[in-house]
Amino acid sequence: MNRFRMAFGAALVSTVVAGTFLLSAFTVAAPDQAVMAKGEKVYKGYCMTCHQATGKGMSTIYPPLAKSDYLTKKSKSDVIRTVVFGLSGKIQVNGKNFNGVMTPIPGSYKNEDIAAVLTYVYNSWGNAGGAITVKDVEAARKLGKLK
Q: pLDDT tens for residues 21-53?
């Protein structure tokens, strides 16, 4: 199984030009391999302890990142802020309740690392995909901790 989700298919688009239909193919680009590799390294070095190698978390202690509705229900800014500032209290992920503490990512990890690990998470374990940029992390940091 290709864990970097490189299998994005080509799609056909119909365009009307001067009364005729033209068909053109396009391919949706997958995340940069170097970013995914860096994100995987950060994940394995820090996040995997709680969220596990499979991204499935642990029972009702640590919520799953795999096929996580938290990633789709929350804005990317809120997800970034969760990683940067941590989170405590009740949350619901994939229909299960969690009431714990997620510590902030250590200061030794830079914005580039945070962008990479979240891009990795968004593109792994059946999640929908997407990319987080350093600018996204910088903007989210300015918003402060989630309340």
A: 333 343 346 789 999 999 999 999 999 999 999
Q: Is the distance from CB of 42 to CB of 120 less than 8 angstroms?
A: yes
DSSP-assigned letters across all residues of 39-106: HHHHIIIIIHHHH-TTS--BTTTB---TT-HHHHHS-HHHHHHHHHH-EEEEEEETTEEEEEEEPPPP
**β-pairing, 10-17 with 87-93?**
unpaired
User: In the numeric block, which tokens belong to residue 103?
Assistant: 């510590």
- Here the tokens at position 146 are 């989630």
pTM over 0.85: no
- Residue 109: CB atoms within 10 A of its CB come to 17
